[in-house]
Each structure stands twice: as structure tokens, then as C-alpha cells.
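User: My collaborator sent over this chain with a note saying "see what the structure looks like." That's all I know about it. Can you take a look?
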Amino acid sequence: MDNLTPRKIVEELDNFIIGQDKAKKAVAIALRNRWRRQRLAPEMRDEVLPKNIIMIGPTGVGKTEIARRLSKLAHAPFVKVEASKFTEVGYVGRDVESMIRDLTEISIRMVKSEHMKHVQEKAKHLAEERLLDLLLPQPRVLRGTGVEEEEREKHKETRERLKAQLREGKLDNRYIDIEVKEKMIPFGVVSNVGLEELEINLKEMLGNFLPEKPKRKKVKVPEAFDILLQEEANKLLDKEKITKEAIERVEQSGIIFIDEIDKIAGKGQSYGPDVSREGVQRDLLPIVEGTTVTTKHGPVKTEHILFIAAGAFHMTKPSDLIPELQGRFPIRVELGALGKNEFVRILTEPNNALIKQYTALLFTEDVTIDFTEDAIQEIADIAVHVNERTENIGARRLHTVLEKLLEDISFEAPEKKNGSLTIDEGYVREKLNEIVKDEDLSRYIL
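Assistant: Without extra context I'll predict from the sequence alone. Here is the result:
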């Protein structure tokens, strides 16, 4: 994090997201402020709260992608939730606290994975020894017979030869009997939406009371090694330390991306489908302000979690949110709609550009496709044209246009071994012009 200055963060985001410089700048500052906060004196550190962000902009302009890439840069626990999935307390649906529980689970997996890497070498050695014990059990020799020492030496030599064969992969096709411990849960808990946490907790609780039943499996040597490696690594892990570190990471560097926040911004209606909109906002408020949420891993404080909210705000505006919630999102960033120039850049520039993706996918079938400059311009033109005439879904339109354009090539690729194809403007027009001209067709197909 030390070398991730705001400018560097924006440069990294530029590798994946075209345009939207204001939004990139805002999230870069928010991320850097976390690093600055960690360097403050403890009494001051607790007082500095994250400056939460609302991204306002139409669909398909990069709101989710900015938040997702930001969390990867920071190696921070990250969860994306849709505000429209939550309901007010008392209604059937997900409660808002579940986002903190989800974030904690993600953090536990992240930290466990990191700790696994540290014990991997030791676990490999222990798993290898256990596997050799299964492949070559200790000989039974009666003590005092005089052949005990001789047998032990012979066994040791054989074991070394077997170890060499194991490492060279010469035993990979050999089957072996292995014992796997499984917790027997005698029944499943029938649960409604929102009760998944209860079901998991009940299963865990019952699992602790029920014995682990050993089950014998016949598997190949590599699979047996993986099972033993997992068992040995789990034995070496300090679960309490992992939980403590994971909760601390959630509290200090967690990021929650709340999408579709405009869907819970009501205009004072109190009946029909809007009945719980304001209720969701009121439930959300304490979590964003700072509260303690109980999870199965322990209490989690939410004061310093960074919340990034996003919405199109077509029918509503940020001022339709309840005033208390508005105050908890002091930074507003507007993301602009994308035009032809941005589409051309999205197709070609980012590390995960769509043209690069499709070229790589077809190359796996030994088919080389090459897009000419005018073809890319034409694809961008068509995407803009369809967005204007139908629903504007931003850069997502490029996916539908390219899928339709390459449909026949993708279908026939396995038969065209070592084939190559140049996609030019003429090819694009031939494949797509009829659909683009017919508004009804383009509405359903593109």
C-alpha cells in the first residue's frame, strides 16, 4: 500500500477502465486516506471516519468495475450487494446485516488462503510422509529375532526409492485406499430467504455434537496427496489467529459496494412495492454510521468500513434518500455516458479488452482472428446506434454486438483448425446491418 499513491491508483485503474476520471480520482483519494489513517496516533485514528462515496451514472459505464478493481488493488475484503434485495425488518428477505456477515466470510477465506501459503511447504512434507506410510506400511517384525535392524534398513531403502518415484510422478496412475473424515448431518434445514445464516449455524452446531465418521475412498495417488495436504495444512493453521486477523481486516479495510441504491430512494410512498424502501434506508443507516454486527466469528464493528454506493438515479435523485443517509455519503461523483470514442478504446485498450478476449478464446481452437481498424470503428458505431434507439446499457452493448458478430465463427471454430480470418468493416456490416436497420430485431437481438 505504501507505493499506491492516488496517481498510481488511477494509473492502475486506467488499465481496466476507460474514462470516468472524476470517479477514479475520488476512490483513489478514499483509498489513500485509509493508508494515512493507519499512520495516525491511536486516539486520532478512531476519530477519522471513511468518506463514503455515491456514484451516479447510467448502467454500463464502469461503476461496479471501479469498486471491484479498487478492492483488488488494496487486497481488501470486498463484497458487492444490491440494495433492492434487502427488505425492512419484519418482511421476508435479506436483512442488511447479512452484507457484514458476507464480508466477514470473504475476509476469513482471504486470510486463510494467505496463511495456507505459509504452511504449504511443511504441509507438503507431512502429507508426503503420510502418503508413503499408506503406500508402504511399516513391516511387522518380532523383536529379538535378529532381523529387526536388517528389515528396518531394507524398508528405509525401499521407502526412499518410492519417494523418488512419487516425486517423479511415476505413481500417478496407481490407486490407493484413503480414509476421509466426514461430519454426518442427518437432515437438512428447510429455510426461507434470509434464514441462510440460521441454517448454516444449526448445521455447524449439530456437526459439533455429531461424531466424524471415517469413510474409505479409493483414489489415485495425486488426489490422495491433495486430500492429505489439505488435512495437514488445516492442522497447522491457527484458526483463532485467522479469525482475529480477518475481523480486523474487515473493520479496518473492508469495502462494501451497494449497487442500485436509487431503487430504495422513495418519494414518501407508503403502500404497494415501495412499502419498505424507507425502512431499508433506516436499517442501513446504523451500519453505515457505525455499529457492531454479530457474526458467527464474533462481533464486527462497521465504523471504518468504506461504503461505495451506486445508482442510475433515472427516476429518483440522491436528495430523495433520507437526510441522515445522505449525510453519510459526503462524496458524490457523476459518471458520464459513453460515446463512440470510449467504445473504441474499451474494445482495444484495457488489459481485459473485449477484442483481446475473443481473439484469445478462438486461438484455443487454433483459429486466428484479426480485427481491422475500420471494423472496430464500425462495431463501436453500431453499439452507439443501438443504445440510442433502444435502451442505453452502456459498454455492455459491446458484448451483445460482438457475440452476434462472432456467432458463426465461434460455432464453426473447432472444424477450422489452423484457420485465420480478417474481420473488416464489410464483414461487420454484412453480419449486423439487417438487424440494426430493423428496430424490432435490434430490440430483441442486440
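A starting point for your reply to your collaborator: The chain has three domains: 6-106+245-334, 119-244, 340-434.
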